[in-house]
């Protein structure tokens, strides 16, 4: 059975990732810095020091990479690349700075763009981190960097991934991306994207 590493899982599990991973065909191994969410592995980006090299078929990391400092991003992506098997791939999601920028240009940074399970999300929350969580003391929620499709693709390829495919979801103000360890055609990675970039 193929395994995926759920990096920065928080309280979420495979049924809250993507449809393909939510099926019985994939085994999930959870990883988080916070012991209270009871992950399989207590570890953190950028190192993933507790994870063996070439040990996973996929890595899933939703809304984690923007919490790193810019100089940590290549280290984290290289760590994800390291823990993947030769034919493995990573799925990344994060806020879309390009879409957020269109709202910022209007001068409105506090009107909510949408409501998440944690509450209303405003442009300023997407830029700098979810303010209510940080106010309660969870400073892990602070954002230290951000991405467009172009910059995320450049970061992945620059960190050793052979192929990158990304999608913008303007109505959700986020990016979804898939990067592979092995080289493949545009058509093949687009096929993978159709399978694995479908949120639950």
Helical proportion, percent range = 25-40%
| Structural shape | globular
Strand-pairing-aware structural class: alpha/beta
H and E string: EHEEEHEHEEHHHEEH
Oligomeric state of this protein: single chain
Mean pLDDT: 95
Rg over CA atoms, rounded to whole Å, is 16 Å
Distance between the termini: 21 Å
pLDDT < 50 stretches: none
Number of DSSP E strands: 9
Number of distinct helices:
7
Characterize the largest beta sheet: strand count, sense, and whether it forms a barrel: 7 strands, mixed
**Spatial order of the strands in the main sheet?**
3-2-1-4-5-9-8
Note the beta-strand portion. Answer: 25-35%
Please provide a written account of the structure.
This protein has 200 residues and is an alpha/beta fold. The relative contact order is 0.16. It is globular. Helix content is 28%, strand content 26%. A seven-stranded mixed sheet has the order 3-2-1-4-5-9-8, sandwiched between helices. The chain has a two-stranded antiparallel ribbon with strand order 6-7.
